[in-house]
Amino acid sequence: MLAQITIQLGDITKITADAIVNAANTSLLGGGGVDGAIHRAGGAAILEECRKIRGRQGGCKTGEAVITTAGKLPARYVIHTVGPVWNVGKSNEEALLANCYRNSLQLAAEHDVKTIAFPNISTGIYHFPKDKAAGIAVKTVTECLQEQITVEKVIFVCFDAENFELYQRLLNKS
Ligand code: ADP
Fold first, then answer.
1. Are 93 and 126 in contact (CB under 8 A)?
2. What are the C-alpha distances in Å from 119 to residues 7, 47, 64, 149?
3. Atom 19 of ligand 1, nearest CA residue
4. pLDDT in tens, 4-53
5. Is 81 in the pocket of ligand 1 (CB under 6 A)?
6. Is the CB of 159 under 6 A from ligand 1?
7. How far away, in angstroms, is 131 Cα from ligand 1 center?
8. In the chain, what are the domains?
9. Helix-strand-coil percent breakdown of the chain, rounded to 5?
10. Is 131 a catalytic residue?
């Protein structure tokens, strides 16, 4: 069965899914944007597990992902992935952003996640151009879903109308 891709406009902390993805930073200690919102809404249990992961492996590299409890959120897990900071395309940002989606889905499948919600990774504080980021997200997720059978539904949660319209346009075409 082909997995389903959907789009929603809103706050990812309100999404009921097996996993939600956090656009974290390499420290895993929380930050602004969606990261701050997830830690605030999920409670201290998330940060506690992030600290343990830091103790084991010293944070998370750009493009990689780690998994924790979702604490008080209406999800089972938070998958923390670190998007690239946009550097006018000179620092392999496009491949690194694709790795975020790929590694998050890989971790999801390993934890038997059937439904997963992604924010628009790197398009906030990290300033990745929204249109480019949306193209990479849709292409990478579509490819990954064809190669696995665990994840059944992916929700792209857009926080602003511009991203929502970009994803609508991309997904109506494919
Ligand atoms: P990054 O550092 O990866 O750019 P940000 O958190 O600044 O991370 O932004 C990533 C995306 O998440 C942006 O599109 C931003 O608008 C969006 N965002 C911020 N808060 C939320 C939220 N509560 N739910 C969903 N998306 C959010």
1. no
2. 10, 19, 15, 22
3. 34
4. 999 999 999 999 999 999 999 999 999 999 999 999 999 999 999 999 99
5. no
6. yes
7. 15
8. 4-173 (3.40.220.10)
9. 45, 20, 35
10. no
